[in-house]
Amino acid sequence: MHDNLDAAPGRRALLKNALVLAGALAVPGAVAARERLTAGDLRPVRQPPIPSRPTVPAVPQAILASSRVVRPALLRQAMASLQKHGSQVRQRDRMAIVDFAVGSSEPRLHLVDLISGKSTSLLVSHGSGSDPSHSGYVQRFSNAFNSNASSEGAFLTDNYYVGKHGRSQRLIGLDPTNDNALGRAIVVHSAWYANRDMIKTHGMLGRSQGCFAVGENELDRVFANLGPGRMIYAAKV
């Protein structure tokens, strides 16, 4: 079930929880992908690879109520972007915010429920082109083809497919800083180099080729929270 934020109660809830989240403080924060995803590798999937939200088991309350929340400056920027692109974002009850100011050893992919104000935070990789020295931190962004870099800005989640990285979700870049995302095959997928045990052995996650790569056991949670038609906002503030 999706809440409609165009209704008055939804707008009030959105504004209330944005203020609550904006007042919270953030918790601070080697191996590269070996295969490149190209348009020729994509095989469409007619139905999402997971059940629709009404039949997805609820994420435990303790996890949803995680103390890791979005930093106020980044949250304000993400909410302004959601307002700016509102006509293109059909579902505005939940969104993901990626804090690229934080290193890859820290949970920096925040899945935020804009109605309840609750959130959960996961690990996510950045592109090798954004971190050539493999420091664990994003040094730069790029929207260029073959850059292998992460891009900043607002992304619209699109349909699911199966490609070289298994179940994945296409993303549409909504800003000039990321409008090549679809053509570059910048997507959400899972990867072994984004698993938590990489931190134990390497002190950081491996790098993607610009995609939002999450741990292999976290993909269902990300898909269940987002689905098509929602926003991912990524920035380094």
UniProtKB/TrEMBL annotation:
Specify the superkingdom: Bacteria
Check the record and name the PROSITE patterns matching this protein: TAT
Q: Name one Pfam family in it.
A: YkuD_2
Among PANTHER family, the record links this protein to:
HYPOTHETICAL EXPORTED PROTEIN (PTHR38477), MUREIN L,D-TRANSPEPTIDASE CATALYTIC DOMAIN FAMILY PROTEIN (PTHR38477:SF1)
Record-given protein name = Murein L,D-transpeptidase catalytic domain family protein
